[in-house]
Amino acid sequence: xxxxxxxxxxxxxxxxxxxxxxxxxxxxxxxxxxxxxxxxxxxxxxxxxxxxxxxxxxxxxxxxxxxxxxxxxxxxxxxxxxxxxxxxxxxxxxxxxxxxxxxxxxxxxxxxxxxxxxxxxxxxxxxxxxxxxxxxxxxxxxxxxxxxxxxxxxxxxxxxxxxxxxxxxxxxxxxxxxxxxxxxxxxxxxxxxxxxxxxxxxxxxxxxxxxxxxxxxxxxxxxxxxxxxxxxxxxxxxxxxxxxxxxxxxxxxxxxxxxxxxxxxxxxxxxxxxxxx
Length: 277
Hints:
- This protein has helices spanning about 5-15, 240-250, and strands at about 30, 40, 75-85, 95, 105, 130-140, 165-175, 190, 195, 210, 230-235, 240.
- By secondary structure, the chain is mainly beta.
- The protein has one domain.
- Strands 3, 6, 7, 10, 11 and 12 form a 6-stranded mixed β-sheet that branches. Strands 1-2 form a two-stranded antiparallel ribbon.
- β4 (about 95) and β5 (about 105) form a beta hairpin.
- It is globular, with a radius of gyration of 18 Å.
């Protein structure tokens, strides 16, 4: 289905839980949605949805769209974080709550030391030591420059892009020996003519590739996203120094990101999930 640039901008903006919600509440049959309450009206005609349990390949939504190529063949257009993990995976399976700041936490959370949990206030809001965050590196087939908001992923004149999100879940700690977020962001680096992140973790397991949508707390199983997104989610957590998040905000970044965003609760209805091959 063709989407105009303005429609894509609205749909994409909701990936980070900002902007107005889309009015497309599709009609669905009243079913027992794989652990959901019977009688829920599912938006079954909106294509496969995200987030999901990446350890399960189950999915009945067979609406196909072209998978986006590797991130190295696309332009990085946005980086942002969510507190906690929107997805559920082998390394982040601890359910937090069903609130907008709920989601899932890294399994190693109960084992953190007092030092790792020591308070570390700073410029990046919505994250404290002991929290889990999910980072999204958003890529687009459009000719664009990384910038503020997900409108940068769909600039004027590029109305139907291929979109890909590289996702990594981190356990945030107060430890300078943990990973440095500023080493994984964007510093104006261009590789083979494409904007690229400095680095994306490659030691946290084989990423799970699947078709899905945008995320963020504006959506649930009744109100779905019409966007078509290729996801690549790593299955294990890594520890990240909270002070590096503060430095990212303090130094300024082209995305104008200064706080972590809310989560969309896990999509569990098989009718809304694409099968993972």
